[in-house]
Amino acid sequence: MPRLKKLALASTATLSLGLTGCMGGSIPDSSAPITQQEASQGAKFHPQLLEEFGGTYQGPQAAYIESIGKNIAVQSGLGNARSSFTVSLLNSPVNNAFAVPGGYIYSTRQLVALMNNEAELAGVLGHEVGHVAARHSQRRQSAAQQNQIIGVLGAVLSGAVLGDSQVGNTLSRGFLQGSQLLTLRFSRKQELQADDLGIEYLTKAGYDPRAMSTVLASLAAQNSLDARLAGRNNATVPEWASTHPDPASRVRTAAAKAGQVTGTTNRDTFLTRIDGMLYGDDPKQGVIEGSQFIHPEFRLAFTAPRGFYMVNGTRAVSINGQSGKAQMSTGPYNGNLDMYVRNVFTALGGEQQKLAPASVQRTRINGLQAATGSARVNSGNGEVDVVVYAYEFSNNRAFHFVTISQAGRSATFTPMFNSMRRITQSEANAIVPRRIDVVTVRRGDTIQSLSNRMAYDNGKVERFRVLNALGANDTLRAGDKVKIVVKAR
User: Fold this and answer.
1) 126-177: per-residue pLDDT in tens?
2) 313-to-62, 80, 488 alpha-carbon distances in Å
3) What mean pLDDT comes out for the span 43-55?
4) Domains of the chain
5) Boundaries of each LysM domain copy (predicted)?
6) Sheet holding 481-487, edge to edge
7) pLDDT tens column, 177-189
8) Is 124 left (phi over 0), alpha (psi -120 to 50) or beta?
9) Which residues are bridge partners to 207 per DSSP?
10) Which of 340, 296, 294, 297 is nearest to 317 (CA)?
């Protein structure tokens, strides 16, 4: 959720970069300088992408990530590579990295925290440089196939719940408007080409090219852990793995292509430089603690239904489960809660789909003025219920849920609707950020003893192993540096 921003309810526009389709063939010439047209296109979308992903991370780590990104970009052979590339560290708690035309490269701080050496960082950034150098987005555009920067949850909604229909497409775009879960999709062949280029750049720069496979392995392990901790039976998540497909199989491919070539990893340097970096949710955007979402600045909290998991975005919180999907966000409010609910429906329907509640009912939830409305919508897969539940927190601020479920099953979300509450100042003050703490293993330290210091209530050992790329049979050696996650005080 945003710190101060509000969701523009009347807009369902998405950023179109023409990024689907694949020209195929071998790796194209990737040494042509970035053109002015490409630079202008990237500059247009750069501020919008920063806004969607929490802005740039303000910390000493940002300059380090930028320097590694520019150094690896030089290996691409693009003219003026160092000055032509813009490398941004994003203040986002999702594992993601992407690029847009014109030399704009992005990685989230969460993905950086998952890495364990500088070679892995260079590999991820080199992969994204490869997309730019190979003009993958332009080649997709030239294939004249439609694509947008879209929320993955929107795709799930339109495919699994709404069907491939105009109603489904319009509603899912409106439903996820403003979500942080924005991704750039390339074809599988283009992803493998970017892997090849990333490995090539790693080798040229003197890094260990096997780093591409190890970082992909960590990502696959993190996806699997996230799924288990969320109670899901699969590891499909709207993060780097889904936009850069099938990390598990790409681990094997990348390792085979790297062969026996070795190089530097700069592990200690990397760990020293990321020490203290924010990890997980930024309290300014709200935090997820188990099944509860808490926003200390907006002074609100709610609990997701049993069996659902949440993903915190810059402008909204998504709540996902097998029996339905939901989103919590905010919008312009003038004191009329009934009109607020109707405006949300209007925004969800968009220009082509007129969507309105049959009626708006007023109630009180935990001392808050509340209003709700519902609509039944025909979709390609049958009828679905759309519910909007709004709450007044002040004369000029309201928050709302939007839920979607198969017809007659909206009661799944009733406990969540009834859980919305205003938190006390002491509860807000108790929310502190988590940070990466790099420690040196001492004699007698074990995985269990260091895991006990992880600032979580569950999965401490599993989280520690994945964070440090430790397999089930790996042990620690005195003198090694490892990462733990602690609460900053």
Assistant:
1) 999 988 887 645 544 444 333 333 332 233 233 333 334 444 444 444 444 4
2) 21, 35, 22
3) 89
4) 36-149+184-279 (no CATH), 283-429 (3.40.1000.10), 434-487 (3.10.350)
5) 437-484
6) 278-279, 434-440, 481-487
7) 433 333 445 666 7
8) alpha
9) 264
10) 294
351-357-363-369 Cα dihedral, nearest 10 degrees: 10
| All residues at 6 or more sequence positions from 449 whose CB lies less than 8 Å from its CB, including other chains | none
